[in-house]
Amino acid sequence: MKEQQSTEHSSSKSQRYYASIGQYLLPADEVETQRLNKQHDIIVRAFEHRLVIAPVNLQSGDPVLESAAGSGIWALKFFENIRADGVIVDMECIDISSKQFPATHPPQMHFSENSITKLPNPEWNNRFSYIHQRLLIGAMNDTLWRSAVAEIFRVLKPGGWVELLEIDFKLLRWGVGPHSKRLAGLIRDMCAGRGVIVDLNVYLPALLKGAGFLEVQCLPRRVQIGGEKVDQSVSRSDSVEGDLDRAGLENGGSDEAVLKNGYSTEEWRDLCLGFKGPIMQGGGYDVVKTGEEYDSLLESSSLEWKNSKEAETSFYAILARKPF
């Protein structure tokens, strides 16, 4: 999840680094890197342990673009997995900030500061066989999304696939008590104030079709948040084995299935804590007045998540193919 315009900002009080607090909603620091790496496992488990959802058949030497690369966690895992199958691709991994890039990586992986809204032209025209992008919801408004989709269409090879992985910011089904409902309302107000498109599961498929893409589809996955005190038998683990809800397997991961053991309360709290900078920059949106008040609201919300089985969110894998 990365922004498209880079403006450094550091909050001395919380020691969080925001590369562009005016546009991107989350920090770009070591704490956020660790959170993103944990979140990576949740997303992979939600999609039946698959790193790639699009029906691609890559060959050695094929160019692949990873947009909003962040810590590089997806790109590194993807490269490692297909290399184990004897396929070595040429990867471009871009982000507008290099602060979270990995220190080491295979020579076939190239990390650079670039924006999906303005890619190298004309050298990247019709270049990539597959484009992957994850969680740009907190960085984009309508204008930026339209620029991004136009650029993706330009640099994708005819017949190539794009895969956009996004999260729900509209339903906010993690408001399960008075405090978490208040927090959800605050997040909703922040998004509205910044022009964030919250229903990307509807918005992006329509935008992709309008740009000329074919075989556009949106695959939803529901993920539980918290619930630790409701079911003491639930064991939170970093392992990707054994914690996918059986309903998710039986229903092929349909929207009716919920990934159990998804976000722990602490993991979801850490995500919401990252919003503190832009929320306070926005004056608290008539919900909180100080950073301490936001922290208190977040802690009260955390207790509600721990004591509920109902808190959840949704991920969406949005796929599309460029025509030949």
Question: What does this entry look like structurally?
Answer:
It holds the Pfam family Methyltransf_23. This is S-adenosyl-L-methionine-dependent methyltransferase. This protein has 324 residues and is of the alpha/beta class. It has a single domain, classed as Rossmann fold. It has nine helices and ten strands. It has helices at residues 30-46, 73-84, 142-155, 178-194, 200-210, 246-250, 265-273, 276-281, 291-306, and strands at residues 9-11, 16-18, 63-67, 90-95, 109-113, 128-134, 156-167, 214-225, 258-263, 312-321. An eight-stranded mixed beta sheet has the order 5-4-3-6-7-10-8-9, sandwiched between helices. A two-stranded antiparallel sheet has the order 1-2. Helix 4 packs across helix 9 (291-306) and helix 7 (265-273) packs antiparallel against helix 9 (291-306). The chain starts with 8 loop residues before the first strand and ends with a strand. The relative contact order is 0.17.
Note the main attributes of this structure.
two-stranded antiparallel sheet; 324 residues; 10 strands; single chain; alpha/beta; disordered N terminus
Share of residues in helices: 25-40%
Uncertain segments: 1-13, 234-242, 244-254
CATH superfamily: Vaccinia Virus protein VP39
Q: What's the overall average pLDDT, rounded?
A: 89
Outline the biggest β-sheet: 8 strands, mixed
Please write the CATH class name.
Alpha Beta
